[in-house]
Queue: 2 jobs
Job 1
Amino acid sequence: MEHHPAAARLTEAAVSAVQQNGAGNPLRIILVVMVLGCALTAWFLLRGYKRKDD
């Protein structure tokens, strides 16, 4: 794998945020993204059942 400086900076920023504020904020963000992703996936999969095939 190649080393990407941008990824290293992002990782450093995430580690710094966790050390300063604890894991609460990143976990909240992950939870919100997961819930929105599940809702959008359910909507995408279930929207086809609404159509009537006459």
Job 2
Amino acid sequence: MNYLIIGNSSAAIGAVEGIRQVDSTNPITIISDEPHHTYGRPLISYWLEGKLSDEKMFYRPQNFYEKNNCKLLLGTKVTAIDIEAQVVQLQDTSFIEYDKLLIATGSRPLMPPVPGLEQVKNKFSFMTYDDAKAIKAILKPDSKVLIIGAGLIGLKAAEGITKTTSDITVVDLADRILPSILDSEAAQIIQKHMEQKDIRFILNNRVDSFSSDTATLSSGETLDFDLVIVAVGVRPNVELAKEAGLAVNRGILLDESCKTSDANIYAAGDCTESMDITTGEQKILALLPNAYMQGEVAGICMAGGQKTYTHAIPMNAIGFFGLHMITAGTYDGEAVVTHSNESFKKLVFKDNVLKGYMMIGDVKRAGIYTSLIKEQVSVSKLDLELLHSKPQMMLFDKARRLEKLGGVHNEN
């Protein structure tokens, strides 16, 4: 058996470890267009801030590939997949054969079609290690930084550069920061916390045009800058799959074993769609835990094992300047909210099931809420006040408590 993986991030690593749970010997080839040992993408802001060294960026130890009998082709781009011949073509026109293939091509940043953006010399995305390195190379204490986008990527970029410069402006068309995961009340908590670090926010606004060193907003205001960080969203890298004839919607379509429409090809990570159990909808869940778990399932199944991935939910765990937050699920339903100063909790229920939550500040026991969502546990007979204030393992039946505590595993 010859395993081939396109990609080298969390989904790919999950697949390697999944394969090795079943098959300890057959070779694995990993192809990545990046030149780096696998690293933690969420860590790039901490590296830019100076909190992490290069060595601390690694997602797995230096001997990971050797230990798992992996051949690594870094800085190498795949240009095509031939399903019939079961080969992939590389940029140098050479071919590599496979018996089982994993597509873990991730996503890439969107560049908005704003007039004049092409004139801006110092413009960057903020998704890769090389992005962070490029920003660090030109960032100075007196640099004026304009960030387009107040989502997770834009705000982590802002956090990463505050140790070097304090002249940071974030612009977003939405009426609040983190609009895809926070309501207005929760967003205000995070925004005020970040404003204490001298980060300026301009919301309900957009950049209408650029010159080489200025941005004109829809409000008419003009902003000077030395560099621009564009963080307005991502696009899944599905072109290889689509051109190969695989079933693709916004992302690559999979079954519960993470297999594509071809029996020998699997996919995982930001380039795929998952079933969100809180809404019953197929969607892209561009989240590191989701990518790893999909990759692990794919790897096990590629090697002949059996495993399914059926409990996907949107979830984000992140912090800004020491203030932590976790969000999960959907917010369509009846909400129960408590808050004080920089602590906030919102639980959302529908049809006697916890569908989603937001937590800021005190995020202890968030894992219990996540399990309640994933397992769709009925809360009809639970004390909702206790559930909100002091969630406990006793909310689960005895068998599930033992399984969660590592004592007994229910194979069913």
